[in-house]
Amino acid sequence: MLGRDPSFKHVFTAGDIAEPLASVTEGEAEKMNMLFEMKNFDVIGFEEDDQVIGFLVRGEVTDPENLRAFVHPFKISHLISENTDLLECLHLLHPKTRLFIINKSEVDAIVTISDIQKPAVRMLFFGIITYFESNAAGLIESVYPDNRWVECLSENRRDKALATYGSLHKRNTEIDLISCTQLSDKVSIFMEDDELRDQFIETSKTKADRFFNRIIRLRDDLAHAQSLTNWFEEKEVVDLVSWLIEVTERIAVRNSGRKG
Fold first, then answer.
1. How many of the other CB atoms lie within 10 Å of CB of 240?
2. Which of 68, 125, 166, 232 is the 20 to 30 Å CA partner of 2?
3. Please, is 170 exposed, middle or buried when counting C-beta atoms within 10 Å of its C-beta (0-12, 13-18, 19+)?
4. 132-to-16, 30, 55, 246 alpha-carbon distances in Å
């Protein structure tokens, strides 16, 4: 993930959103009911010979005297390590709704769809968008030196950027004019420059517009702590963020070559 930016390598993993897997053994129907009803767990582990061998699902156990009969065995496709990159974990999670963490050959934690609301997911997405914005700013300054990129903005957006720059400059804040623009401004410059779009976004203007509009909406939802549930309903957000990573890495390669 973001292999050319070491600060993003494995920063967030499945372990950052996983929860310990509560488990029961045969004869612990009362404990099972407590975990399902009072703790509101949808899934718990089933332990046999001091090892969790599978899981029970709430509402499926009809004979509390024979829990073993209702155990779902773990499948390889359900198992990940705690060091699995968080984005990959989210990609695997969508069709399954749950994944189990295997640690030293033992299953001891679980990731469910409810864990997508956790801070690590929000920080990951926000960081990826910010990384794109930073690299986009560097590329724009390279292609449009001496702040000539302002000509690509509408008069209103140009005036707002200049006003922000002027206000910060009066307070002796060291900042570039491009840093006074919003994400939507940088996207607008990309959209209006056919060469930039073709080289780094590698898709049609219509499709790129649709992608970036979603990215901007996602950033706004993250900034305002909105629920991410709707974004995950069709795995849209994982595909969207993965696409943005690819775009950003192409830009980062160009920026790195320019600095060299």
1. 18
2. 232
3. exposed
4. 23, 51, 41, 10
Instruction: Provide the pairing of β-strand 51-57 with 98-103.
Output: unpaired
What pairing do the DSSP bridges indicate for beta strands 23-25 and 19-20?
Answer: unpaired
Structure tokens at 201: 């976004």
Gap between the Cα atoms of 129 and 137, Å rounded: 12
Domain spans, the chain? 6-113, 119-259
pLDDT digits (tens, 9 = 90+) for 152-197: 999 999 999 999 999 998 887 888 999 999 999 999 998 888 898 8
Distance (Å, rounded) from C-alpha 199 to C-alpha 90?
A: 29
Helix ranges (H only) for the chain are 29-33, 86-93, 119-143, 155-170, 183-192, 194-196, 205-223, 229-232, 236-259
One-letter amino acid at 72 equals H
Q: What is the pTM of this model?
A: 0.88
Best CA proximity match to 170, nearest among 185, 181, 180:
180
